[in-house]
Amino acid sequence: MKDIITLAIESSCDETCAAVLKNGRYILSNVVSTQIDLHKKFGGVVPEVASRKHIENIQPVIQKALDDANLTFNDIDIIGVTYGPGLVGALLVGLSSAKALAFSLSVPLIGVNHVEGHIAANFIDHKDLNPPFICLIVSGGHTHLVEVKDYGEYEVLGKTRDDAAGEAFDKIARALDLGYPGGPKIDKLSKIGNKNAIEFPRVYIDDESFDFSFSGLKSAALNYLNSKKMKNEDIVVEDIAASFQEAVLEVLVNKSIKAAITKGYDKIVLAGGVAANSRLREMFDEKGKEHKIDIKYPSLALCTDNAAMIGCAAYYDYLKGKVSDLNLNAVPNLKLGQR
Amino acid sequence: MKVLGIDTSSKVAAVAIMDEDKLIGEYIINSNKSHSEKLMPIIQEIFSQCNLTVDDIDLVAVCIGPGSFTGLRIGVATAKSIAHSKQIPIVCVNSLETLAFNMNLSKGIICPIIDAQRNDVYTSKYTWENNSLLCIEDISVKNIDVLIDQIKDRYEQIIVVGDAVDIHKEKLESLNNIYISPNSHKVPRASSVCQIALEKYKNNIIDDYMTANPLYIRKSQAEVEYEERQRRMGENG
Ligand SMILES: [Zn+2]
């Protein structure tokens, strides 16, 4: 059988990405042009600034992906692109480029859900991994507990009712003056901090629910900081970071394990930027051993936003005949499993 | 030489194919549908109706603005990717010259106005001299009342074109030296984009898929606010 070469494009937030894959799971190139430095002075991603940078970056990034793969446009069989969820203006740059390329090259266009891309990152790193499994997707924008029944078939078991886990990390990091983005900094500080120093609440909502809520924990941490400040007492940033992180991660791990046991799965897969957190991986590995559940997570490079994961998801959608029309629009609040 | 012209600087999506001798096809859709939903389908349709493929195109002409930021990016991203995949050049055309070009060979001053929100317009001034379009005032953002004040007694005859005409119709109609362009010429036309591009190409004003980018005129709101904060901090020592 002839190889299928996918060109994938991702521009949903502040990274302009393009990748080339062979048969969905083999990366030939994976180019990520990050805008983190551009947004630092604003303390977060500014949509208009991101969109302006995307349109300057997109062609060089696509060309580099082709060059790194040693291929030309003529070798491309399908084009995959993120069409949601994300920042609408940012999404539209990648989407418009992908649509024009698909038309110009006369190849199928496959619109991909960004969150499904994060899940698919695992298929690239673990060649023997196949659905079904339980997947925890945690990032700056998402906290989802999902039953992945087959390629492209998802049932959302639970999601956050307020802040995403990564968002909570960013907000606490800001309150601690750690700068942006906060997740990796909290992770680093936690390694030297005492995770039992402060007893922050673990919010489980109720026994039946697989939903998450982090706003209460976030307020507790902010209140703690304020009261220390009012009393003019010194704070130990490392201890706050470690204690806060432990409270977030414990709930994520326990709910995921419970979901696997309840639904009868022996595999849990992690996805999204927060899956790069070293303590989260450690806790999952421990709990996985205890309950004889196989834990998988992507390599660090594939945890954060990239186009390779979008290409992998596009490949499996293509095999299932899910091809998009050229009138495809960006859907900023696209739900998992929605088309 | 066949040119594919694209204009998404306003609500109007316009696409045309032209060569040196004739306009081969043109689509102008002024509906509320988003550019993302209408642009590629009309590009697809124009190629099919004209019995052409992208391989027949030698040059992509695109309107780079000023106009709606998101709209501009959809058109420019589309133009860049077509040019990139086929390794053909791009000619950038600005939205105000496109509108002025619609009033081909008319007498007097042409003043294109494009909505820039909050009662502002992107504007400039053009005139026809010896069969060619001359820009006599650079592009700027102006409050509509300021602009009206400037033009109300200064010129004998001034023609206004562009999407902001409808928004400020009452104010404009009250002036007696102002002529409002007809509906047929008020909207950006991709055929105008193609025609201007052919001329620029002859004069070697050529871009490519790397260098072609939107012409925003305005900074992003976040940038403006950031600079304002920096300035105030500087003043306070
Ligand atoms: Zn992401």
From TrEMBL, chain A:
Signal peptide per UniProt: none
EC number(s) from the headed UniProt entry: 2.3.1.234
Annotated catalysed reactions: L-threonylcarbamoyladenylate + adenosine(37) in tRNA = N(6)-L-threonylcarbamoyladenosine(37) in tRNA + AMP + H(+)
Cofactor binding, note field: Binds 1 Fe(2+) ion per subunit.
Pfam families: TsaD (PF00814)
Keywords of the record: Acyltransferase, Cytoplasm, Hydrolase, Iron, Metal-binding, Transferase, tRNA processing
UniProt binding sites for Fe cation: 114, 118, 305
Protein name according to UniProt: tRNA N6-adenosine threonylcarbamoyltransferase
Source species of the chain: Alkalithermobacter thermoalcaliphilus JW-YL-7 = DSM 7308
From TrEMBL, chain B:
Cellular compartments per GO CC: cytosol
Stored InterPro entries: ATPase_NBD, Gcp-like_dom, T6A_TsaB
Family matches, as Gene3D superfamilies: 3.30.420.40
GO terms, biological process: tRNA threonylcarbamoyladenosine modification
Segments forming domain Gcp-like: 32-225
Stated name of the protein: Universal protein YeaZ
Domain of life: Bacteria
Listed CDD domains: ASKHA_NBD_TsaB
